[in-house]
Amino acid sequence: MSSELQHENHLIQLRAKLNERKIKLWEVPYMQVEGDEQRHSNGEEMLRLAEQFGAELGIATELCLRTLTALQRNALDKLQSKDEFQRTGLATVRVRAPTQTGSNREFDLKVQVTETGGQLCELIGQRLSLDARKIKLVCSGKIINGVRTLQEQKVSNGATVMALVMACSEEEAKRECSTYDRVHKIRSDAEMLINENDSSNFLSQALLMGLTLYEKGKAAMKADSCEEALLLLLEADHDFRNCNSQLLNVVDNYALLNLDIVWCYLRLKNLNQLPDAEERLKVCELKFQQSYGKNMARVAAIRGEQSNEKILLVRLHLLKAVLYFHQNKRDDARTMFRVVETELLKLRIDDDCLSRLMECGYGMKECRIALRACSNDVEAAIEFIHSQRETRRVNERRSERERQLYRTIGHDASEGGDTLRLKLELVDQLMEMGYPEELAALALKRSANDINGALNELERNGEALQAELLRTVLVDEELQAKLEALGFGGQVAQVALKLMANDYDRATNYLLTNVQNGRCSEGLQRAIDVLERQGGSSSSRKGSVSEGTDQQPAAAASDQQPSTSKRTTSTSSDTSADEAKRQERKRKKEMLDLLFKSFSQDIRTTADAHLDLPLDEEMNLLEQYKKLLGME
User: Fold this and answer.
1) pTM metric for this prediction
2) Nearest to 72 by CA among 92, 47, 51
3) Residue ranges of region Disordered (predicted)?
4) What is the per-residue pLDDT across 549-600, written as a single tens digit (0 to 9) for each?
5) Which long-range contacts (CB under 8 A, 24 or more apart) does 184-192 make?
6) What count of other Cβ atoms lies within 10 Å of the Cβ of residue 25?
7) Which residue, among 139, 229, 131, has the nearest Cα to 173 in the 3D structure?
C-alpha cells in the first residue's frame, strides 16, 4: 500500500471527525491570536485533539498530530487566499503534476483570473523548469484552453489544476515533449483522414473524430502512457459533446470513454477531480443500463451469465467504491468492494485452461474472452472462438460490400438518419428478382428504402438509372485493358465495367451476351450513346467493339471522325486534364494510405477489445482499499 494513499486515508477520516463535531481548527482554542492579529497554533489543544482522535480512529498520536497540523495550515492558507482574492483579484490555484514514478508534485500559484490559460502554463513551466508549450492543463474534467481567460473557463480561486507533465530528468522531459506533439499530430492526422476518406458514412464528423481519438487514447492506455491517454480521451470527450444528442445515444462508446477517463484519474492518482469523476460514472452507469439492462440482465439473457460485458461492470463498481472511499462513505465503499470481489472471482480465468487453449494456437486475448464467456470450459471456448471469428468475417464482408456499393452509386448517408442508409436485405431481394446489385441500390436510394417504389423505378426508369450508374462509376483501367486484350473495344469495355461496377467476371459475361457477330445489342448501344453524351470516353476508343473488324458501331464512329482542329485540340486537352486528375487522385490515395497505416498501427480494431482486461490492476486496487477499510 502506498504511503500517499495511507496519508489520504487519514486525511479523509480526520476531516470527517472535524466536520461531525463542527471543530474549526483555525479558531480558538486551536489557534492563539496575539498582537497585530498574528495567529499561532495552540500546541496543547492540538495535541489533546490528536490523542482523542487517534484513539478513536486507531491512528498513532504523533501521526494524527502531523495530519491535523497539515489540515490546520491548509485551512489558514485557504482563508488567506480567499481574502487576497476578494481584495486584489489575485487567485490561488493548486497545481498537481503527476510523475512517472507514480507520485504527485503539488504547489500553489498566484494568478489573475483575467489572464489566459497560456499564461498559467508559462507560470507552471517556470516552476517546473519545463517548456510551457509542452504542458497541458486539466481542470474539472476539461482541457484548459490556452487562448481564453481563466475566468471564462471557470478556473477561479481555490481551483485544482492537473498539469500533465513528466518528471524533470532529461529523458523524461523529452518524452513529455513527444507526448504533446503526438497528441496534436494525432488530431491533425485524424482530421485529414476523416475529411479525405469518402467511406466515412453514417456518422457526423464530430462523432467520427471522437471515436478516432478515443481509439488512440485506448492504445495509449494499453501502452501504459496515462498522461497521453488522458489528453486524447479528453480531446475525444470534447468532440463527443459537440455531437447531436440523438446520434450520441446510438453508440455506447461515450459511456466507455467516461469510464476510461475516470480510470486515468485513478491511475494518475488525481482524485481531486472527484466531482467530474462522479458525474462521469453516473453517465456511464445510466448508459450501461440502457444498453445492457440493469445488472447486465439483458446481456445475460442473450449471452449467458458469464458474458464478457460484465468486465465493464467490475471496473465501474470498483471506481464507484473508490469514490465512496474518498467521499468518506465507508459503509457504501465496503459494500461495493464486496460486490467487486465477488465479480472478480466469477471472472477469474483458470491458468491451466488458459495454457491448454493457447497450446491450440489461439491468441491470449481470444482465450481470455472465450474462457470468461464459457466459465473456463475449454471445449466450449474453442467453439466460442470460431463462432466469434465467423461473425466478424460476416460483418466485415457486409461492411466492405456496403462501402463498395456506396462508392459505386455515389451515395453518402453521412448527413442523414437511418432512412438514408440503404438496407442490404432489400438490395438482395431485388437481386433475387434478377436486377443487378448497383441498379437495385440506386432504385432503393431514390425510393428511400421503399421496395415497391424501387421496383417502380426499375421498371419505368431503368434507362435513367443506367445513365446515373454510367456517370458515377470510375472505370478500373487494368480491368479495361484485360477486356481489350480479349478483343473488345475500349468503349464497350468501359460501358460494361461501369454497368457491372468493375466486376470483371460480370462485365465479361455481359459483353459475351450483348455483343454478337461484332454487333452490340440494343441495350448496350443505348448505354454507349448515353456515355458519349456524358463525354465518358476518349475519341480514340469511341464506338469500337472489336479491333480490326468491320462492325456497325465502328462505322458509326467513323462517320463522326471528320472534325475541326478546334475539336481535336479540345479532346486532347480534356484527355490531358483527365490524366492529371487521375495522377492527383493516385498521389493523394498513396499519401492517405501511408498516413492511415501509420495512424492505425497501434489501434486495436476488434469490436470486443475493450472486454479483454487481465483484471490484475483491479485486483491489486481491491486489496489496497480493503486494507485501508480493515476488511481483511
Assistant:
1) 0.70
2) 47
3) 532-586
4) 333 333 333 333 334 444 444 445 555 666 676 676 666 555 555 555 555 5
5) 186/213, 186/216, 186/232, 186/599, 187/213, 187/235, 189/595, 189/598, 189/599, 190/216, 190/599, 192/592, 192/595
6) 21
7) 131
